Amino acid sequence: MIQKYPSGLLESAVDELSRLPGIGRKTALRLALHLLKRTPGEVESFGNAIIALRQGINYCGVCHNISDEAVCHICSDSSRDTSLVCVVENIKEVMAIENTGQFHGLYHVLGGIISPMDGIGPGDLQIDSLVQRISKGDVKEIILALSATMEGDMTNFYIYRKLSDAKVKVSIIARGVSVGDEIEYADEITLGRSIVNRIDFNDTIKL
After folding, report:
1. All structural domains of the chain with their residue ranges
2. Domain 66-173 CATH assignment equals 3.40.1360.10
């Protein structure tokens, strides 16, 4: 068998690095060779950080966001609006929304969306815990902030039906033509939703 790399250790490192999403073998090799240029202490620090991440990370007992504690810093923040909960697919959406600085409520991370093709059903997501959370009566409005896809819409509708008996307002993020987009280049679904969800022009002046 022809050995592709001058070292079995290097090949093993490339194999592991190439398992990461978006990392091909060429990029993995470049990363591995970069690590070889670093000092043993720097590489050890890097490796320990990854191990600590996997072994020490917690998931918030309230919203299921990642956290260093049993309850994340967002849920434990007394300045947040506890009556408003934004439902998102995963942790990346929490980070994205937080970066806007426009939302001051709480979150609920589903851990994915319903996708029969991928074998993901409602029972695989944190939907029941959302229903239980709403049943306590503290939440007044749920904002569904899921992907504008068939799977996302399916999940939205499922959650809406699950909460049909709850005394809580269910809203969805606006879907329309993005700022900077030209109408002629907007797809029909986006443009249609923009028209249906139109707002009074006077309101746009007040923004």
Report:
1. 8-56, 66-173
2. yes
